[in-house]
Amino acid sequence: MAFTSRLLSRSRQLCGIQTILLRDHAAPVRFFAKEAAPPALKGDEMLKGIFLEVKKKFETAIGVLRKEKITIAPEDPAAVAQYAKVMKTVREKADLFSESQRIQYTIQTRTQDIPDARTYLLTLKEIRIKRGLTDDLGAEAMMMDALEKVEKEIKKPLMRNDKKGMALLMAEFDKVNKKLGIRKEDLPKYEEQLELKIAKAQLEELKKNALEAMETQMKREEFKDEQMVDVKSLDIRNFI
């Protein structure tokens, strides 16, 4: 999404994702398994495949947007919830990532070959900053403090394949999560809250763009006697 830097804090959700992914790496799981390389394709065939895949996703998304009513009213919780529902349908039918899934995927791909826990956590911080996410809860500092405690106890850098050491770190992370009020089972709720924030930000952007377009149109001579319509009355389906 293009509006991540404008959203409210996502620290709780991001910290939950970080902890769960690091926990998953303590044992072999699909998130960090190296998949078999796909069969080699010639350049033209690869480009054609990518183009057809993108075209299919685009047409699927447009098909959903032509059917669903969207009200451009970011100040209305019901309109925001409806827009979030429509965009979820778009993602499901077009097989697109949600924002939290995109964060997860970025973490997985960027960290799968990192051998030690310290570099892993520093990479998570780098990802957070680059994506415009905030850590208002101070989760990163607490997680690093937990790592410092474990490494002091085992008297060496903690490697991610060290099952005993990782178990100690996970126990410390459980204490951090409890202090922050983060529970793995609540992640779907955090994701829903995140999608609602994204939906509201996107509707605000749509409203801004619509108002700017109408104001520009009203300056033209042929529209000087026209009244500007309420953006809430606009039906996006008529413009697709």
TrEMBL record:
Keyword terms, alphabetized: Coiled coil
Coiled coil: 189-220
Secretion signal, residue range per the UniProt entry: none
InterPro entries, alphabetized: MGP1
GO BP terms, alphabetized: pollen development
A Pfam family that the UniProt record links to this protein: Mt_ATP_synt
Origin superkingdom: Eukaryota
PANTHER family: ATP SYNTHASE 24 KDA SUBUNIT, MITOCHONDRIAL-RELATED (PTHR36013)
Name recorded for this polypeptide: Probable ATP synthase 24 kDa subunit, mitochondrial
Organism: Rhodamnia argentea
Organism placement in taxonomy: Eukaryota, Viridiplantae, Streptophyta, Embryophyta, Tracheophyta
Name of the gene this protein is made from: LOC115727828
